[in-house]
Structures are given as structure tokens and as C-alpha cells.
Amino acid sequence: MKKFEGGTTIAQKAAICGVLAALALIFSYIEVLIPVVPGIPGIKLGLANLVVILALYLIDAGTAFTVNLVRIIMAALLFSGMFGFLYSLAGALVSYAGMYLLKRSGLFSVIGVSMAGGVLHNAAQLVVAALLISGPQIFHYLPVLILSGTFFGILIGITAGVVIKHLRQGI
Amino acid sequence: MFKEIRKADILLFLFFIISALVLFARDFVTASEGGSVEIRVDGEYYGTYPLSADDTILIERDGHTNWIRIESGEVFMAESSCKNQICVNEGHIHTVGQSIICLPNRVVAEIKSQDAGTTDGVDAVAR
Ligand SMILES: [Zn+2]
Fold first, then answer.
1. What is the predicted pLDDT for the residue at A86?
2. What is the model's pLDDT at position A112?
3. Rounded CA gap, A129 and A135, in Å?
4. Dmax over Cα atoms in chain A, in whole Å?
5. Among A84-88, A110-114, A141-145, B16-20, whose mean pLDDT is lowest?
6. Measured between alpha carbons, how far is B53 from B71 in angstroms, rounded to an integer?
7. Does domain B31-112 have CATH number 2.60.320.10?
8. Fewer C-beta neighbours within 10 Å, C or N terminus of chain B?
């Protein structure tokens, strides 16, 4: 079992997982309530992704994956429904896979990892939307979603960097 | 620990920005500016008018009237006798393939390319 600097027990890890999953769920709900750009689907701050990144960096990849999956299933049961489930599942899985690989490569900072996560998340959701509702004309939105994913991904990445630094010092 | 921004971060950033710009540019090129507007009434060809000259076209058919206005290279339905006024609210069009349709009066105005616009002189003379 991996450990924080300073050492962590399984109980501590389980507690942190629970807190992170709850936090991610709250963030998902906030994003359902407040669309960043009304009218254009898919533009999101990616607050929930902040939690996944924190889990990925502070705990381990398995925990990050679990937190992500628990959040999406809970969100589907509580507020987003079946289409919302497929939509966020696609976004979350693709962005998780991308972020995991980039982090593992060791070439990117948390900002680059988060940025890739934001773009992949948006791109995957666009594919689901194209397949399930609109057809290919929705790819018209792709450049806007790449830009928004990049921008918000960087913001989330900077935030994650600051939080990681302080948490590691604090623990 | 908060790592510094890496070279790979910047390369990935540039890749995303450039991809987005290329996609924007492609959209822009595909949506080329029109050269003329073709009007059809009751499914039949009515006339073609260049976008380069401001003009107002009055179409009267079976007691219905439509005023189609060409202004600064754009086309819009200025007035229509139709009940729903959807055509009037459709706004201005100017790129190839865009159209304004007045279903009740069966009037269609569609933007054509620059090439179609050059035959317009002939049409104008023939009328
Ligand atoms: Zn009308």
C-alpha cells in the first residue's frame, strides 16, 4: 500500500476517499446548477475533476478511479439520469485514462495533466452527444470545447497544484 | 509539491490552441460569403439578385406580398403578409446555402455563391 509522506493508515485512506467522493459529488451538483456558458452544452469548470486529480496525486490511481466512478453513479441516481450518466461516464473515463497516462509519463506538471483531462472530457462528451442525439453537426462546437477545456483545465490544474503543495506540507 | 510548468505542458497547450484555431478556420472557409440571392415562389424560379447592390424586391402572388431587402451584402425579409412572421424574424443571411423561407406565402430566398452571381446580369437584362 502506498503511503503519504509521514505514513497513513488504511482507515485514514478510507476516510479521505469518502471525503473526496462526497466533495466530487457536491461539485458535480454545483455544475449541474450553474452552466458556465448557457446554451452551449459541455462547457464546464471541471470542479469534480479537481477532486479526481487530487486523489490521483495524493493517494493513488485506483482511488482516483473509484472516487470518479462513485461520483458518477451517485450523480446519476440523484440528479443527472440515464443520459447524464452515459454523458459523464464517457467524459470521466476518457479524461481519467488520458490524465493517468500523462502523469505516468512524468513529462507533464499537474497543470498539463489537468488541461489534457479538461479537453478529453469535453471531446468524449461531444462524441456521446453526436451518437445519441444530434448527429455529426454538433462537432461544430469542437473548437469552442477544446478552448474551454484547455482554459478551465489550466485553472483547475493551478488550483490542484496549490492544494497538493499545502496538503503535503500539512499532513 | 507544486511542480514548475514543463516543456511538455507548453507543447500540449500549443497543440490544443492550434487545433482549435484550425477547426475555426475550416468552419470559416466552408461558410463562404455568398454572391447572390436566388428567389423561388411556389417552387418556381423567380429571379437572382446580386448581393453587391442594395435592392428591395417586391413579390406579389395571389394577394400575398413579401418584401425582400438586400442591404450591405446581406438579405432579410423586410415585410411579409404572412400570419406567423417567421420569415421576418429569421434575420439576416449572407453565407452560401443559408435561406429564408416563408412557408405560408411559399417564398424562398437562398444565398448562392459568387459564381452564380455573375450570371445575374444576364437575368436582369432578360427580365
Ligand atoms: Zn412569412
1. 85
2. 96
3. 8
4. 53
5. A84-88
6. 7
7. yes
8. C
Strand, helix or coil for residue B38: strand
pLDDT reported for residue B91 = 86
Q: pLDDT tens, A147-156? A: 999 999 999 9
Is pLDDT above 50 for B9? yes
A146 to chain B, any CB pair closer than 8 A? The answer is yes
| Confidence grade of residue A85 (pLDDT, cut at 50, 70, 90) | confident
Query: A8 pLDDT exceeds 80?
Result: no
More reliable by pLDDT, B68 or B26 = B68
CA distance A54 to chain B (A): 12
Cell numbers 499532513: residue: A171
- The string of DSSP codes covering B51-96 is SSS-EEEEEEETTEEEEEEEETTEEEEEEE--SS-HHHHT--B-BT
Q: Residue A137: count other Cβ atoms within 10 Å of its Cβ.
A: 8
A143 contacts in B (CB within 8 Å)?
Answer: 19-21, 23-24, 27
Asked if the C-beta of A128 comes within 8 angstroms of chain B's C-beta atoms, the answer is: no
Mark residue B112 as left, alpha or beta (left: phi above 0; alpha: psi -120 to 50; beta: remaining). Answer: beta
CB contact under 8 A, A109 and B21: no
Q: Which domains does chain A have, with CATH numbers?
A: 10-168 (1.10.1760.20)
- The ranges assigned to domains in chain B are 31-112
Give the closest of A109, A110, A119 to B16, CB-based: A119
CA distance B102 to A37: 32
